[in-house]
Amino acid sequence: MKTLLTIIRWFVGLLFIFSGLIKANDPLGLSYKMQEFFEVWGWHALNDYTLALSIGMNVLEVVAGVAVIVGWRMKVVSWFLLVLILFFTFLTGYALLSGKIKTCGCFGDCLPLTPLQSFLKDILLLLLIVLLVIKAKLIRPSTGTFASVFLLGLCFAAVAGAQFYVLKHLPFIDCLPYKMGNNIQDQMKMPEGAIPDSVDMTFRYKKDGKIFEFNQAHFPEDFDSTYEYVDRYDKVVRKGNGLQPAIIDFSLQGTAGDTTAAVFAQEEMYILLLAKDMDHAAGWKTGFERVAASAAAKSIPVMIVTAAHDKAAALFPTHIILSCDATVIKTAARVNPTYFVMQGATILGKFAGSDYSKTLQMIADSIAKPAVTDSTGQVRDTLMK
């Protein structure tokens, strides 16, 4: 029994450590997933606390995993793990049964699991942890109290510190489709073998005080302007296989409308600064101006992509400002702001605003193009056409 308990402890402990570390790589990703649950439940007041909850949960998972491996205070730790896994099982069960949450974020974006896979994983862990609770008296710590507390404290500090680091400097491992080396246009293509849902659209119109329903294939023969549109509802008549492009809804809007294709048509290096908002622009404006000046010296266009167009235009009146959805920017740029060094639609470099020196280095290493009086102005003219 002791050998079996040791194997279970290591399995459960390593899984909790892995889960905590992989999410600690991107605490914002977990906080966005929490917001998704809170939005579904109508708990909007908790949205402001999701990042703190995310950081705390990741730390607790790793510390609990280490504690169960070393056997430190197993009566308390095993009960804590039981409460934690019951909570996780509820979340994955809700995601599975409701269908409102597509992925539960158990292993972050690096290892996405379906709700069914996550639920089955949690059921297995629940059974193993129940056994640990029952047999906690048989488990003896493998290290002394001081060594255990020191190790747990070290893990606490390391995981917490790592998360604060990535919040300022981007994740250690970028598991998102906007990672360095990816081509954004390729990521927007439907994957091979994808089968979309087949949807039947039913329209509701009002005429002479009565409501009429009909689909695209059965419009009434006397349909004219006397029919007043009410609404439309869709019914999935045949489910697809769920495959979707890695990037959805990415678009860059300029004064002339959608400029995505025009931006990606640039064959030489250019720089996009993605900033969801301008709330803390004073902290990174100086660094950005240095990047812009260095880029201008080599005729490299620089554009600001933001969801706060008017504020950006007021702060940076001489720069190209492109609008983009805030949710898209949150996905692409985990740090506000983030520099994207681009060529065509390919991401050559991706750096946090605090690491703008790395962007300067890429500019310095680039081959100077023939002198152009105002390369940014030429790009602006192209985008406005």
From TrEMBL:
Domain (Methylamine utilisation protein MauE) ranges: 1-133
GO biological process: methylamine metabolic process
Domain of life: Bacteria
Database matches in InterPro entries: Methylamine_util_MauE
Keyword Transmembrane among UniProt keywords: yes
Cellular compartments per GO CC: membrane
Keywords, ordered alphabetically: Membrane, Transmembrane, Transmembrane helix
Bilayer-spanning residue ranges: 48-70, 77-96, 116-134, 146-167
Keyword Transmembrane helix tagged: yes
Localization per Swiss-Prot or TrEMBL: Membrane
Principal subcellular localisation of the protein: membrane
Pfam families, per the entry: MauE (PF07291)
Name of this protein: DoxX protein
Organism: Sediminibacterium ginsengisoli
